[in-house]
Amino acid sequence: MVSRAARRAQALGRGADLRLGDAQALEFPDARFDTVVFTLSLGTIPDERCALAEAHRVLRPGGRLLLLEHVRSPIAPVRWAQRSLHPLTRPCGDHLLRDPLDHLAAAGFRVERWQRSKWGIIEHVVARKV
Questions:
Q1: Which of 70, 72, 73, 85 is the 20 to 30 Å CA partner of 7?
Q2: Contact in structure between 111 and 104 (CB atoms under 8 Å)
Q3: For the segment 59-115, what is each residue's pLDDT rounded down to a tens digit?
């Protein structure tokens, strides 16, 4: 994906500093970024709380956290299906029953906007570093 992104940036004539890394241990100084984005990744990161703490650490005061994640559904039949599939997806590293909203306040974020779609399994969140 990094090489694909590099080709795309070059085709658009944009400079891009692309790196492989671990969201649980970012190699950036504190308060470095205005925005951190997670896209369909917190369900596969082994410790999503650690990744959120790292996002908080590298954000400047008032910085934004943008999330687009698959989460556990509040709709009972959909959640039942997720629970049934979870034993199959978990060994692959995909946790269908997570929800970052459970941890955002504890990580030091204030949710500004929140929206669910697709039977409640897709969550869009805009949060700010408190």
A1: 70
A2: yes
A3: 999 999 999 999 999 999 999 999 999 999 999 999 999 999 999 999 999 999 999
CA 5, 10, 13, 15 dihedral sign is positive
Name the nearest CA neighbour of 43 among 58, 23, 59. Answer: 23
Dump strand ranges (E) for the chain.
Answer: 33-39, 59-70, 109-117, 122-129
Token pair recorded at residue 61:
């005061």
Residues 6+ apart with CB under 8 A from 69: 38, 39, 40, 41, 42, 43, 98, 99, 100, 122, 123, 125
pTM of the predicted structure, to 2 decimals: 0.89
Place of tokens 């500004």: 112
SS3 22: coil
